[in-house]
Amino acid sequence: MVAQDNQLWLAMWKNQQTDFHQPLVNRHLQEYWHRLKVPNMGRVLVPLCGKSNDLLWLAARGFEVIGIELSSLAVKAFFKENQLKPKKTRSGHFTIWRHGRIRILCGDIFLLKHTHLGQIDAVYDRAALTALAEPARKQYVRKLLSLMPLLKPILLLTTEDVDPLRTQDSAALVDQEIFDLFSPHFAIAVSYGDAYPVAFSPATVNKVYQMKRLTAATD
Ligand SMILES: C[S@@+](CC[C@H](N)C(=O)[O-])C[C@H]1O[C@@H](n2cnc3c(N)ncnc32)[C@H](O)[C@@H]1O
């Protein structure tokens, strides 16, 4: 199932079906990031990062950025479009592309181990959880928790359908699912972003979930 989904994503990059890519830095990232209070020069994990310009924004603020992306076409495009010349190395199932404070591990996130990353100080997820099929979402959250045993804050951005009949990713269902998946471990604050009509189709809403660990820090 997951392997099939991987093939679909690889084909989407090959066929340039990448409408999810935003040419500009995400404005909810810019607005909400400081609320996570990530330490200066902290290490930020960006799962399923595509060729997002958000990586550049985080690196420009002094964070060490680790993106995870399945498609080598996406990773190549990220560095090429930003005129960066990365160094490439190999580690287990992953090819690591590195330039300055940005490292992208190219491979399947489900094969990633804590030892690939070291300590993580925060996670930025834009359309990563919700890019996965429903059964893989539980697996994804388990993976995040294993990569981040000390439970650091997460900023999670989604685009959800307002109309409950249109897709399985309606706002009400996604909300419930995110609470079910994360609330045993995190306090969740939801900020509703902008709802806007898409031409000839029902509206979508961009939402912001800020997550902080529930238990008092012992680390
Ligand atoms: C909806 S896109 C979001 C990309 C990025 N976060 C952004 O904001 O543009 C999801 C990305 O996840 C990647 N992906 C899907 N499954 C993956 C997996 N198992 N491991 C790593 N990356 C994966 C896809 O190739 C795609 O680039």
How far apart lie the N and C ends? 37 Å
Which H/E pattern describes the elements?
HHEHEHEEEHEHEHEE
What is the name of the CATH topology?
Rossmann fold
How many helix segments? 7
CATH-assigned homologous superfamily: Vaccinia Virus protein VP39
Number of domains: 1
Task: Name the ligand types.
Answer: S-adenosylmethionine
Record the strand order, biggest sheet. 3-4-5-2-1-6-7-9-8
Tell me how many strands there are. 9
Structural class: alpha/beta
Percent of sequence in beta strands: 25-35%
Low-confidence stretches: none
What is the mean predicted local confidence, pLDDT? Answer: 91
Tertiary shape: globular
CATH architecture: 3-Layer(aba) Sandwich
Largest sheet: 9 strands, mixed
Q: What is the share of helical residues?
A: 25-40%
- CATH domain class: Alpha Beta
Rg, alpha carbons: 17 Å
Protein name: thiopurine S-methyltransferase
Family: Belongs to the class I-like SAM-binding methyltransferase superfamily. TPMT family.
Catalytic activity: S-adenosyl-L-methionine + a thiopurine = S-adenosyl-L-homocysteine + a thiopurine S-methylether
Keywords: Cytoplasm, Methyltransferase, S-adenosyl-L-methionine, Transferase
Description:
The chain is of the alpha/beta class. It has one domain (2-17, 24-213): Rossmann fold, CATH 3.40.50.150. The protein is built from 7 helices and 9 strands; from the N terminus they run H-H-E-H-E-H-E-E-E-H-E-H-E-H-E-E. It has helices at residues 2-14, 27-32, 54-60, 72-81, 114-117, 134-147, 171-182; strands spanning 43-46, 64-69, 87-91, 94-99, 102-106, 122-126, 154-161, 186-198, 201-213. It has a 9-stranded mixed beta sheet, with helices on both faces. Helix 3 (54-60) links the parallel strand 1 (43-46) and strand 2. The model has no long low-confidence stretch (mean pLDDT 91). It is found in: Cytoplasm. It catalyses: S-adenosyl-L-methionine + a thiopurine = S-adenosyl-L-homocysteine + a thiopurine S-methylether. Keywords: Cytoplasm, Methyltransferase, S-adenosyl-L-methionine, Transferase. It is an enzyme of class 2 (transferase). Its main location: cytoplasm.
